[in-house]
Design brief:
heterotrimer; A alpha+beta (405); B alpha/beta (199); C alpha/beta (159); B: two-stranded parallel sheet; 21% helix; C: alpha/beta; 4-stranded parallel beta sheet; 5 helices
Chain lengths: 405, 199, 159
Amino acid sequence: MTLSATPPPEVIAQTENTMVLSMGPQHPSTHGVLQIVLEIDSENVVKADPEIGYLHTGIEKSAEGLFWTQAQTVIERMDYLAPSSNALCYALAVEKLLGITDRIPERAQTIRVLIGELTRIASHCVWLGTHGIDLGAISVFFYCFDLRENILDLQEAAGGARMHPNYVRVGGLNGDLPEGYLARLDALIEKIPGRMRELRGLLQANPIFQDRTIDIGVLTPEEAVQWSVTGPSLRASGLAYDVRKAFPYCGYQTYDFEIPTRTEGDAYARFLVRLDEMDQSIRLIEQTRQRLDTPGPVMIDDPKVALPPKETIALSMEALIHHFKLISEGFRVPPGDVYQSVESPRGELAYYIVSNGENKPYRIRTRPPSMYNLQALKGIAPGNLIADLVVMIGSLDPVFGEVDR
Amino acid sequence: MPSTQVPPIAGAAIDPPSLRPPIDDAVIERVVPSELRSRLEALKAGGYAMLLDLGAVDYLGRTPRFDVVYHLLRLAAKVATVAEIGTPARVRILCGVDEGQSLPTVSDVWKAADWAEREVYDLFGIRFDGHPDLRRIQMPHDWVGHPLRKDYPMRGPALERAPRPAFANKTNVVAGSPPSGRTLEALQEQVKRVREGGP
Amino acid sequence: MTVSPGQFMLARLDDVARWAQSSSVWPLTMGLACCAIEMMTVTSSEYDIARLGSEVFRSSPRQADLMIVSGRVAQKMGPVIKRLYDQMAEPKWVISMGACASSGGIFDNYAIIQGVDTIIPVDVYVPGCPPTPDGLLYAVNLIQQQIREGGRGGILARA
């Protein structure tokens, strides 16, 4: 086992004025396992070559050996800050291949939106906390993670686990919301605006934070589109491209929300866009809450895809057989390919899924938003200080489970 | 039950993209490698300014063996509101590549293709002519083989599975010794309670 | 001067040293994947690992004595972890947090090292995917117990 070599001289080279330095892969501020090979001239970055792959898990290959429902467990661990958005994108894609998209129950769609927006707030909490810590604002971390605990409590109540609940499934959801969930959701909805005010108050008008983030890492709209940057980083450069509005899914076209944008394109703009997005998520959560008062099914009523209710196994032969087949063999998905995208907290997360008619995925190609966002670092890093590099990585918000897969 | 033990179902499709159901996710076009670059440049000039994704699929048993898939989005690279963007058009370009054949790079057309092409090279072995820096990106630099190919074993070549080093066979706990600390008392308490018919 | 009982404290130097050592175990920031997020959560106010003495997470292996391998270890990362472990000064302990670090977890494939104990010695394994922060706190408690009761690496450990 040898350490990976440094990039070839055409990429990064030490000259008489510059030094080659490796930042990472173990570093407090790289948000995960990232190695940036820097060519620096004292504190100024001349060239930056991020080196990824330190978390390559072979998720796409693993998924090819698992059933369609089992593959979701490995898929969820890609973007580990927003696991439900991975699961949602996957479920939507497989539902399209199965042809059951319009038979997913209404309540399931509503809860999917709720879970998606709660996940967005939780993910932005981690982003803000770690971004603050990188810049020395350590209190922000505690406030953010406290808010995140409330959301993870709800996620655990609904899905069974704090992270990676595997709650969103192909065909709907794993089960309905438990008793008492709506009351807790109401309590959270009441508490969140105060929390958001606190978070804004901590950093938004802080002169040190502004000094460190304004005019740092500016992405012009042309540059952003060239690097395929999506998500809040793109919206901070002025393009209001959000998959929830452009290619609506789960009924997002029936909700009333806005897409915040800025035009400066610097790290401060990305910060403001994400905070505004959290406010919009709260608005969406309130709207889903109103729709959740009416009960209904949360899983498609199709025994070829979804497990029949457990109570019927002892009474119905068909239910027993379907249970047996679905668990031992899984359902089969007709051959074809599909490209399904969702708006994850990082940008446009998409899966290009190919099925050859079997009970296992043939190929799951992920369009990882963090990888394309991180690549933009090569363009915006040169000419800045090393300390600014930390700000830029934080403002692009990469998650390495997704970058490396 | 591990699904790798379930044999594949006979009669699996060899060329799934040609059998797809009517899903309206993108306009699909198939090109051959010689016209790939001109087609992509024409699309970019026609307004498809964003390369959404560049990936590959291995259809072992089909000729050509690989499909390199480009997804493009018709998005103008300027400030725009939600209403101006609307629902942009998406295009999927499928390019069949055979073993040993290489494709022209598009990393000068879209900068985002840089790492994506490196990843396709690393995991599938498809080379891209003209790429400024085509080296492995996910696997270690001295890795042999292209893991996402269908004939690459799931668990990797046998040599890579490192044998357990000597210290992994020794532990702090001597086999048969009682649990340390207060655990022993707690366990004995519990056993006593159960024997006395407690809760 | 009269001295009454209770005004002297006698203890073995060994025990005092171990008590001091176990009360200030400083972890290394070795966050790899999802378990790293739960490790960060354990430093937050709800779970608060600082009350166990792990007040700071050191970024430099030279200053840390506990390496919490939190997350899946990829082939590229294996040598890095081995080098970091070698750079840590004795005495040092390792917690293998989560299923992936303990045994490869759900990823039984070419890309993941099937258990970090194939490259470095591990003291405590924490199951879970990811383990709840309480699980990690319990693991740190077990490390403290091992230090106090003379496990491998105590400050005056016998060889």
